[in-house]
Amino acid sequence: MKIAKADNIEAKVVDTEGAEGVVIRLLIHEADGAPNFYMRQFNVAPGGHTPRHTHDWEHEVYVLAGSGTLAGAEADEPIAAGDCIFVPPREPHQFRAAANEELKMLCLIPSTGG
């Protein structure tokens, strides 16, 4: 088993092309022996965003704090603390923080996704 404080886990800058002001913490991951699911925390700086991208695996996301926009294939939707989000496989998506506050999210993916 593992018990850790998220703030004590190293935050790494997301340097993927198209990302701006994003850090990731690998809360539960391969190094912890997790065989099926990974839990990550993303912090997106005010006005920042993840890259617009798509992939073959799903996301389950829970917004911990802040607000912003989820840009999907068909529309942009507002998101805020307390929202639960499902991003299906192969769905184009981008998370954007509001201009005035950090967006903080948990993101769960299958271990085959990265």
Keywords:
mainly beta, Jelly Rolls, six-stranded antiparallel β-sheet, three-stranded antiparallel β-sheet, 0% helix
Structure in words:
Helices cover 0% and strands 50% of the residues. With 114 residues, the protein is an all-beta fold. The model has no long low-confidence stretch (mean pLDDT 95). The protein contains no helices and nine strands. The protein is globular, with a radius of gyration of 13 Å. The chain has a domain at 25-36 and 45-100 and 107-114: Sandwich (Jelly Rolls), CATH 2.60.120.10. It has a six-stranded antiparallel beta sheet with strand order 1-2-3-9-4-7, with no helix packed on it. A three-stranded antiparallel beta sheet has the order 6-5-8, with no helix packed on it.
Radius of gyration, CA atoms, in whole angstroms = 13 Å
In oligomeric terms, what are we looking at?
Answer: single chain
- What general outline do the C-alpha atoms trace? globular
Predict the CATH topology of the domain at 25-36 and 45-100 and 107-114.
Jelly Rolls
Task: Give a topology summary.
Blueprint: E1 12-13, E2 20-28, E3 37-49, E4 59-65, E5 67-71, E6 76-80, E7 84-87, E8 94-97, E9 103-110
Antiparallel strand pairs: 1-2, 2-3, 3-9, 4-7, 4-9, 5-6, 5-8
Summarize the structure.
The chain has 114 residues and is mostly beta strands. It has a domain at 25-36 and 45-100 and 107-114: Jelly Rolls.
